[in-house]
Amino acid sequence: MSELTREGHRGTGPGAITPDGCAVELYERLPVGDEPDIVQRAVPARARILELGSGTGRMTHPLVERGFTVTAVDESSAMLERVRGARTVRSPIEELELGERFDVVLLASFLVHTADPRVRGRLLRACRRHVADEGCVLIQREDAGRHENLPRERAAGDGLIRVVSSEPVRPGVRSVHVEYVFPDARWTQTFLSCPLTTEAFEGALAEAGLAVDAYLTDDRTWVRARPVLDRP
Ligand SMILES: C[S@@+](CC[C@H](N)C(=O)[O-])C[C@H]1O[C@@H](n2cnc3c(N)ncnc32)[C@H](O)[C@@H]1O
């Protein structure tokens, strides 16, 4: 499988860098936030979760500890080598064909904002074909102010995450540059992001056969979608 960089994505800093510009050593040390709580509140106990773009298992590990059975998918073998307690599958999400369906499919980390609308469609269709009829898809999307008031920074463990800039590169697509500064190391990631209005987001879901069931957080960044079923 190719380790080529995805168009418009790059990363710098120590250790392996994924095709979308993420640093493996960075994700190994980034603390998890409230994501596992949000997932736990939104899905049945002990559900089977398909986690798309799992990285090193930052969210996987707390979910496994809470009794969920997780299959972690990532296109980076260097990321998946760090995942413990879960089945791992190396694949681009858009090409995933496991032939199984899960109680929950998780598409976090703003992957739905990919710059290419065809890729977005393929990501969402991968969610749709892997979710059980009675199951759900949890998606993490950007909040409205994500590309404004920059630079902006916040603490992460003993480091700082600084969103330095977000510049338009073509209609509807921005190039975002982020720095991660720790006492002993520094990483950067540059990636493309396509901001989506609620209407555009819900439209993309509908094209993939999914529909919003609930916005799970006040900032509307976490969404639970359900498959639209073909009833005779
Ligand atoms: C920003 S990291 C987040 C990792 C993890 N979700 C977390 O929150 O710690 C994004 C991860 O998704 C993977 N990824 C991004 N796009 C992907 C795609 N289209 N197919 C498979 N993996 C992808 C990257 O390799 C990386 O490990």
Automatic annotation (TrEMBL):
<keyword id="KW-0949">S-adenosyl-L-methionine</keyword>
<dbReference type="GO" id="GO:0008168">
    <property type="term" value="F:methyltransferase activity"/>
</dbReference>
<keyword id="KW-0489">Methyltransferase</keyword>
<keyword id="KW-0808">Transferase</keyword>
<dbReference type="GO" id="GO:0032259">
    <property type="term" value="P:methylation"/>
</dbReference>
<dbReference type="Pfam" id="PF13489">
    <property type="entry name" value="Methyltransf_23"/>
</dbReference>
<dbReference type="InterPro" id="IPR029063">
    <property type="entry name" value="SAM-dependent_MTases_sf"/>
</dbReference>
<protein>
    <submittedName>
        <fullName>Class I SAM-dependent methyltransferase</fullName>
    </submittedName>
</protein>
